[in-house]
């Protein structure tokens, strides 16, 4: 397959922070509709990898192609790519001065120039889907963490993205709220959206992922389909990592 | 093993038991506290009653200055010179024009935050200064009144208002410029400007504005004295506003920038819709503090020969038929300044509450 056939394709991507080599020859090809989970120890470059995909981070070497468009330093190209990629953050990053509904309307009305009434209809539909439509007129700080993260997911869906990136979406949540967010993500996965998720939720990975990727020290060390990945790890580093996350 | 039943919520025990309890808790709880309370009472007793006597009970409110018999303030001076304190040398027949501007301004200040339509807000913000300028200066069929006739409280407010309104957008741009790490030249210029202005007293800037600015317009163009002062004050205030807003910008978490970028908003969209509303909201108390300082600093324009309210008091005191009325004049000016500064700080609280979404 050529890179044009992939939804996401990273070729020999290298990135440095000053002298610090964060990403080392990262190669990753993801087909349309594929679900990929990335895990690995803290500081291994998981966030950096997915943040390169929508140009929140720049990279110095290599090539990234998103849905047929090469990611280059050009305002128009970056805008085009960001309009296809939704990103959900660990700390939600909702806009606290805007109501939930206004949070959802921002990108559709300002970036995609949709008429407001149409944008409201779409926004309410997505709020319905993440089961939070009754909170539309509240402010983010009046919601629980789980509710806020579901709003953040709905906010991304409003730009109708081809790809959804999740950076540890449940790790800032109280335990009892994790499942309400994961449930929404599982539903989303079933609808065929392309998805990359940085998470250590093994249950989610086994249920949803087509592939699990293990990163350490800025490199992809191992990748496999989820059951083989967790039950039959090959590299020593992955074995050690799995022991550590399973030991508590 | 033990299992406990759920408990009902009970009302909180009432601790406040009337006035005596409150007094004992708050004013006489310890010996030092009691001493401080007594000292405070003594201080109030020795200052307030004489002050009230002078200002109100023994004061003279009407008649001519030859008829004054009472010991207290002779407010007849203020009443006699009131128009000059308010309008300077602005022609008496045209006083309705600044008055109308005052009424428009009050309506503007109270109703703009209440408007929900951004378009109407924007249009009225553009229209407001134009209307005020034409009303005060004249033109479009209104008789023109030259700036050398403007004075008194009218001038004080005008200088402060122009300083505040004009410096605000400049301050925002300077603050954003100072933050723009990817444009080193813009950044250096902004830092240089801000640090230069902040390292120099306002009075120097006013002198420079009145002496240096005309040098750039050499071929005999008369450069309006008031305009020069306004430019100086605006640049001065802009540097301070920029620093206040920069403080607000630094308090915005990085995640807000990232979320706005990842949704595809452009730099200016993100700034105007996401970052600045939040940064300005946190900055309100400091912004108002800076506005209040400016309001008080405007009185320095008397140095370059403009007659603000304080200058008018000094001037009327040298009227040979009204010698020896300085105290009344200065107390009056003090009260005016206080009323304005206090209203500004109250207004800022109203605004702050209106934009609070943290509950
Ligand atoms: N802005 C930055 N400047 C310098 N170094 C950075 C910066 N951001 C991240 N790093 C470093 O890059 C490395 C990779 O960071 P990254 O955030 O991608 O890790 P991660 O795998 O997501 O870890 P975590 O599980 O803690 O989120 C870390 O060692 C981190 O210290
Ligand atoms: Mg991370």
Would you give an account of this structure?
The complex is a heterodimer of chains A (248) and B (359). Chain A is of the alpha/beta class and 248 residues long. In chain A, 38% of the residues lie in helices and 24% in strands. Chain A is built from 9 helices and 10 strands. Chain A is globular. The N and C termini of chain A lie far apart (42 Å). In chain A, 46% of the residues are buried. The model of chain A has no long low-confidence stretch (mean pLDDT 91). Chain B has 359 residues and is mostly helical. Chain B is built from 13 helices and no strands. Among the domains of chain B are: 96-145; 159-354, Orthogonal Bundle (MetI-like fold). The longest helix of chain B has 31 residues, at 267-297. Helix content of chain B is 67%, strand content 0%. Bound molecules: adenosine-5'-triphosphate and magnesium ion. Adenosine-5'-triphosphate binds next to strand 2 and helix 1 of chain A. Adenosine-5'-triphosphate is lined by residues 17, 20, 22, 40, 42-48 of chain A.
Task: Jot down its keywords.
heterodimer; A: alpha/beta; six-stranded mixed sheet; 10 strands; B: about 350 residues; 13 helices; globular; binds adenosine-5'-triphosphate; binds magnesium ion
Low-confidence stretches of chain A: none
Multimerization state: heterodimer
- First-to-last CA distance of chain B: 41 Å
How far the N terminus sits from the C terminus of chain A, by CA atoms, comes to 42 Å
Q: Which two chains have the most extensive interface, and how many residues on each?
A: A-B, 27 and 22 residues
CATH superfamily heading of the domain at 159-354 in chain B: MetI-like
Give the number of helices of chain A: 9
Indicate the CATH architecture of the domain at 159-354 in chain B: Orthogonal Bundle
H-E order of chain B: HHHHHHHHHHHHH
């Amino acid at each position: 397959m050529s890179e044009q056939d992939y939804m996401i394709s990273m070729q020999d991507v290298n990135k440095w922070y000053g002298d610090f080599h964060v990403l080392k020859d990262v190669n990753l090809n993801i087909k349309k509709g594929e679900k990929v989970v990335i895990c690995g120890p803290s500081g291994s470059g998981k966030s950096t990898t997915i943040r390169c995909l929508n140009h929140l981070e720049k990279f110095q070497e290599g090539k990234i192609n998103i849905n047929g468009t090469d990611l280059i330093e050009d305002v128009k190209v970056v805008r085009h790519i960001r309009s296809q990629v939704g990103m959900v953050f660990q700390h939600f990053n909702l806009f606290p001065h805007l109501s939930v509904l206004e949070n959802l309307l921002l990108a559709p009305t300002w970036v995609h120039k949709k008429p407001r009434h149409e944008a409201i209809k779409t926004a309410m539909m997505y709020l319905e889907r993440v089961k939070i439509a009754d909170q539309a007129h509240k402010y983010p700080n009046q919601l629980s963490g789980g509710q806020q993260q579901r709003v953040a997911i709905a906010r991304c869906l409003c730009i109708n993205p081809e790809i959804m990136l999740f950076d540890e979406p449940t790790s800032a949540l109280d335990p009892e709220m994790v499942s309400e967010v994961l449930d929404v993500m599982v539903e989303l996965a079933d609808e065929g959206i392309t998805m990359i998720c940085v998470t250590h939720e093994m249950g989610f990975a086994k249920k949803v992922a087509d592939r699990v990727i293990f990163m350490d020290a800025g490199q992809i060390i191992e990748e496999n389909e989820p059951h083989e990945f967790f039950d039959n790890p090959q590299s020593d580093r992955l074995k050690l990592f799995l022991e550590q996350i399973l030991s508590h | 093993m033990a299992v406990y039943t759920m408990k009902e919520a009970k009302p909180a025990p009432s601790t406040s038991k009337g006035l005596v309890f409150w007094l004992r808790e708050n004013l006489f709880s310890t010996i030092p506290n009691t001493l401080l309370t007594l000292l405070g009472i003594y201080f109030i007793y020795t200052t307030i009653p004489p002050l009230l006597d002078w200002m109100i009970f023994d004061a003279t409110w009407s008649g001519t200055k030859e008829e004054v018999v009472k010991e207290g303030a002779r407010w007849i001076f203020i009443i006699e010179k009131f128009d000059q304190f308010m309008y300077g040398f602005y022609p008496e027949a045209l006083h309705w024009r600044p008055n109308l501007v005052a009424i428009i301004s009050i309506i503007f200040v109270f109703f703009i935050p209440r408007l929900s339509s951004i378009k109407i807000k924007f249009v009225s913000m553009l229209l407001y200064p134009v209307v005020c300028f034409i009303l005060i200066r004249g033109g479009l069929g209104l008789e023109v009144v030259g700036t050398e006739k403007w004075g008194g409280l009218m001038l004080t407010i005008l200088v402060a208002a122009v300083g505040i309104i004009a410096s605000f957008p400049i301050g925002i741009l300077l603050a954003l410029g100072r933050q723009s790490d990817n444009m080193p030249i813009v950044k250096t210029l902004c830092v240089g400007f801000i640090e230069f202005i902040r390292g120099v007293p306002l009075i120097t800037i006013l002198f420079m504005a009145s002496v240096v600015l005309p040098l750039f317009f050499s071929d005999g163009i008369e450069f309006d004295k008031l305009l020069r002062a306004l430019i100086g004050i605006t640049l001065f205030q802009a540097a301070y506003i920029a620093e206040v807003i920069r403080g607000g910008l630094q308090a915005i978490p990085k995640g807000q920038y990232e979320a706005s970028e990842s949704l595809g908003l452009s730099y200016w969209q993100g700034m105007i819709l996401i970052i600045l509303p939040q940064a300005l909201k946190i900055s309100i108390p400091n912004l108002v503090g800076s506005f209040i300082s400016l309001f008080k600093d405007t009185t320095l324009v008397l140095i370059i020969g403009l007659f603000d309210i304080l200058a008018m008091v000094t001037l009327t005191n040298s009227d040979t038929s009204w010698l020896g009325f300085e105290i009344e004049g200065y107390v009056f000016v003090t009260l005016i300044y206080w009323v304005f500064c206090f209203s500004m700080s109250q207004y800022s609280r109203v605004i702050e509450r209106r934009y609070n979404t943290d509950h």
